[in-house]
Structures are given as C-alpha cells and as structure tokens.
Amino acid sequence: MSEEDAGRRADADVCVVGAGPAGLVLALLLLKTGLRVAVVERARAHQREFRGEILQPGAMALLDRLGVLAGARARGSHRHDRFRLVEGEQVLLDIDYRRLPAPYDHLLSLPQAHLLDELLLHCEKFEGFTYFDGHRVGELLEEEGRTVGVRAGKLTVLARVVVGADGRFSKVRRLAGIEAGRTEAFDLDVLWFKLKVPERAPGERRDVRVFRDGGNPVLAYDSFPDSAQIGWTLPHKGYQEVSALGFDHIREQLAAAIPPYAELIRAQIRSPRDVSLLDVFSGRADRWAKDGLVLIGDAAHTHSPIGAQGINLAVQDAVVLHPILVRALADGDTSAARLGEFEARRGPDIAAVMKLQGLQSKAMLSRGGAAAKIRPKLAKLVQRTPLGRVILNRIAFGNRDVRIAEECFAD
Known about the structure:
Elements: E1 9-17, H1 21-32, E2 37-41, E3 54-55, H2 57-66, H3 69-74, E4 78-80, E5 82-87, E6 90-96, E7 107-109, H4 112-123, E8 129-133, E9 139-143, E10 146-152, E11 155-164, H5 171-175, E12 182-196, E13 207-211, E14 218-223, E15 227-235, H6 239-243, H7 247-257, H8 262-268, E16 276-284, E17 289-290, E18 293-295, E19 301-302, H9 310-331, H10 336-339, H11 341-365, H12 369-384, H13 386-397
Parallel strand pairs: 1-2, 1-11, 2-8, 5-13, 11-18
Antiparallel strand pairs: 3-7, 4-7, 5-6, 9-10, 10-11, 12-15, 12-16, 13-14, 14-15, 16-19, 17-18
C-alpha cells in the first residue's frame, strides 16, 4: 500500500497487526476460509532484522500442510541434523533429530524473510487480502468498550476482530491496557552477531551447537547462505561490566568462548556496531483477549531463544486460533469470553514450554562447580534412556494434537 493510498478507510472481517510468522500464517488460514483479512505491518519489506530462524519439525509439518514450506525452502535454507552441547573436546549432549520420522527429521535454518515472502505470496492470491506495510498502529478504535479496528497514521482499518501479532513489545497489547506479565526467569542477556563463514564441503553435516569452552555459553548455527548466527549468553545486565574493559576485551572473550570461530571473530567483529545486545525474558500477558481483540505469538507469551521455539509456537498459535475465530465470527460473538477460548486451549501448551525452557536453561547455561559435575550425568540420562526420546519429541513438535482445521476452508 503506497503513501498515496493512505488516508483511506479499509474494512475487513479480521485485522491482523504484525506480519510475522504468527500473523501471516493466521491470515492465510482465514483467507482460505473465505474471510476478508487486512494485515497492518509497521516495517516495509526487508527493513527488519531477523534473528530467530530455526524451524522445528512441528512448524515444518504445519507449514508443509499449508503449502508454503517447499517454496520457502526453495528460496534458500540449511538443514541441521543435530543439537549438540559441547564443552572443550567433549560432546556432553548429542540430540540427533534423524531419530524422528522423515521427512521432518531435522532442524531447518530458514531466513525469516524467505518464510514471510512465501506466506505473503500465498496470501496475495486471495481477493479478500489487503496488506498495509509501513504503517505503525497508534490507536485502537472502540465502540461501547469493544475493539472495532485500528488507526495507523492516516489509515483506518475497521474489523470485526483485531488480532495483535506484533511481537514481544506489542503496541496492540499496550494500547489495550493488557499487562505483559514479564518475568526474569532466565536471568541472562544475549550478545548476538553474524559471521561470514567459509563454504562447507559438499555433504558436510551441519549442527546447532552450544559451546561451553569459556565462562559464558555460546549458541551457534549456520545461516543461509554463508554466515553463522552466534549468541553469547551473559548474566542479566552483565554486559556493562564486560564492556567497561573495552571492546578488544569483549572480542577476546568471544574468541575464547567459541574456539572454532575465534579467527573469524577477530577478523570480523571490530566494534560495538557489529553486535546486538538482546534482553532475554519470558512472560505471559495477563489476558489474551478483550471484546473484539485477541493476542497471539510473542504478544501473548514471550520466550527465551533456548530450544528454538519462537517460530514453532507462532505457527501453532495461528493454527489453534484459526477455527476459534471462524466459529466466533460465524456466531456473531467476538466477546472476550468467546475469544478467550484461545487462551484456555493454548495456555497449557505454553506453560509446558516455559517449564521445559527453564529446565534447559539450568542444564545447559548454568555456571558453577555443582552444575559442572551434574551436567554430564544429566546428559547421559537424557541420551541413554527413553526420557531422551520424550524430550526430543516435546521440543521438536510441542503439542502433536495441533492440526490445521481444513474443514473450515471454503470449497
């Protein structure tokens, strides 16, 4: 939608605020049902920086069923077969995704832009779809306490339901007066950066790895086409202490923490502009619905990057919300109680993920002598007992009962 088109009013059955994975998957599902959908996104195409890009098997299966996975992969991606926790020369934990049934027997590093472009391509095939990028929502429109639309600058979108899918710092959530429910459960920050890496030999295996060589663990995985995403974990607010010693000190700490990338770090990470500090926290909004409004994805529940659950949860949220919205609209009941069925259905899954991420954080990232002694024993327990398969399935698929309500689709 160009600037010339601003200053107009648009009408839709559902207005989705936020064109991330949750928002666009939901939009496509609703469009397939025959509803009119308007998506309002504050950024213009490719002006956002994306970090999380690992797809778990659960998300891949749903996206494949929706018909978008193959096209997204064709734009470029990397397969990762294992998740490994490495300390020095010792592999403490080796979770092999190839133990899962094909074709979803791996992790997939897929640039979010590739996934979003493919989702948009499919949405644009429907006449009922309208996309407004470059529009920042600044007001929720209400009538008698019910949300009936949004205003973004000169643009007004009226809708029977507004969906806040605009991330962990959700403007929709804030405008609706809903508390974020932030907790400091993980007590860490992540210094995030990318490195250009040499081309791998044909057939060489890729793994997602956490290194524990230095004092602070580091997450690393290959990112399409020729880079590695690196996340260095630090105690919450600990960056100030480290940075006080100068950026050269930070660079050497990074090189020590992740030896296979040491020379690349020294060559490519030259100033604070080359890194980003991420505030890691978890949270669950006090409520996910009001009359005429519902929150999904990070707007409703925020998670740590541990376990690469972000896109998985976003896609599953959209799939779970889809039939609830369809039925509510068909019945003419978009009250908080009716839309609150989404939280009632999805809440237990989110609580389970938060609990599992807390355990993963303690197992992989905790420091101290006691943790160092216990960690190898826990790793052996996970790998050599049926518990390992249970944990792998939970991380990979989440709630396996989540399925696309294709019976809602228009003929």
